[in-house]
């Protein structure tokens, strides 16, 4: 059926893509959605490069990488409940950087993540909200601060394997660029690779101790005009001490600290500097550093 002349074709396409994105499922690096809509509309989406050719026997259609990103943006733009007022000049309050896709959260929204440190008992986890124009470096700093790490070691965001290969974002090694290829986190905005319903991402920290976090994007959340971002809104359990030897070392550390008769109790208490409560955590106590200042401290003076 031809698109009626009295309808805005671009807005109709944006709404259609948002609905496809809302019902899409990812598997083996491919995102598919049921193609139960008008063929003329699907053809428009295909010509825009947002979906692959819908012609065929399959009952689903594949979203392109650009289509996945834009679907999240259009969903927030046209259907999200906006709690924040629009700027007086009528323009979007989302700051966009040249050459990047607009943030998926949309104006008046923030990105919400849940991060959990795998293998810990009790489970160490946090729920954080960050500004919609954050980069992966900015998110890394917020995760470090929310968890309670000291950012002494290398880190990496590792995405599930895609047809184009595994995606890694962190700190590239200039001496061995081909050994562990990864994108510089400060050059990659969150909006380029996150979308509602996406699979969890591995957030790795300290390749020696081997801490692996499961990072789940919970979607855009309404911005609280009275709050400062980033912020930690929930969580549980204390972060392990730096350089304690990974999960096995942390378990030994907790056993020793709990038992005054443990042969290593005195040694580890002195090493840590006092008592340790593995259950202690309060979101209100989290203090966030400026990610730009953290970057300058880490990389200033380097060629």
Question: Quick summary of this structure?
Answer:
By secondary structure, the protein is an alpha+beta fold.
Helix/strand class? alpha+beta
Q: How is the main sheet built?
A: 8 strands, mixed
What value does the Rg take, in angstroms? Answer: 22 Å
Helix content: 25-40%
From the structure provided, what is the oligomeric state, counting identical versus distinct chains?
Answer: single chain
Distance from first to last alpha carbon: 60 Å
Write the layout of secondary structure elements.
Layout: H1 9-23, E1 25-27, E2 30-34, H2 39-47, E3 60-63, H3 65-79, E4 109-117, E5 124-131, H4 136-147, E6 155-158, E7 168-170, E8 183-184, E9 201-205, E10 211-222, E11 231-236, H5 246-258, H6 265-272, H7 291-299
Parallel strand pairs: 7-8
Antiparallel strand pairs: 1-2, 2-3, 4-5, 4-10, 5-11, 6-7, 6-9, 9-10
Helix pairs in contact: 1-2, 1-3, 4-7, 5-6
């Amino acid at each position: 059926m031809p698109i009626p002349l009295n309808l805005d074709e671009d807005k109709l396409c944006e709404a259609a893509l948002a609905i496809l994105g809302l019902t899409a499922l990812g598997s083996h690096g491919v995102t598919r959605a049921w193609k139960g809509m008008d063929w003329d509309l699907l053809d428009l989406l295909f010509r825009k490069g947002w979906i692959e050719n819908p012609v065929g026997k399959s009952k689903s259609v594949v979203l392109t990488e650009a289509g996945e990103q834009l679907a999240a943006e259009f969903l927030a733009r046209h259907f999200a409940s906006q709690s924040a007022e629009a700027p007086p000049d009528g323009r979007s309050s989302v700051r966009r950087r040249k050459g990047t896709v607009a943030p998926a959260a949309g104006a008046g929204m923030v990105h919400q993540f849940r991060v959990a440190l795998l293998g810990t008992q009790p489970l160490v986890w946090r729920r954080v909200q960050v500004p919609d124009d954050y980069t992966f470096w900015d998110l890394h700093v917020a995760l470090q601060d929310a968890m309670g790490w000291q950012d002494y070691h290398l880190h990496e965001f590792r995405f599930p394997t895609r047809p184009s290969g595994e995606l890694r974002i962190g700190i590239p090694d200039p001496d061995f660029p081909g050994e562990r290829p990864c994108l510089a986190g400060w050059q990659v905005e969150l909006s380029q690779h996150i979308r509602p319903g996406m699979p969890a991402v591995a957030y790795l920290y300290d390749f020696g101790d081997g801490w692996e976090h499961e990072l789940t994007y919970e979607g855009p959340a309404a911005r609280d005009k009275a709050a400062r971002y980033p912020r930690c809104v929930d969580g549980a359990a204390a972060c392990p001490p730096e350089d304690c030897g990974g999960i096995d070392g942390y378990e030994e550390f907790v056993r020793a600290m709990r038992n005054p008769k443990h042969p290593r109790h005195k040694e580890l208490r002195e090493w840590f500097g006092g008592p340790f409560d593995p259950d202690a955590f309060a979101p209100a106590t989290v203090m966030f550093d400026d990610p730009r200042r953290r970057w300058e401290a880490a990389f200033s003076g380097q060629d």
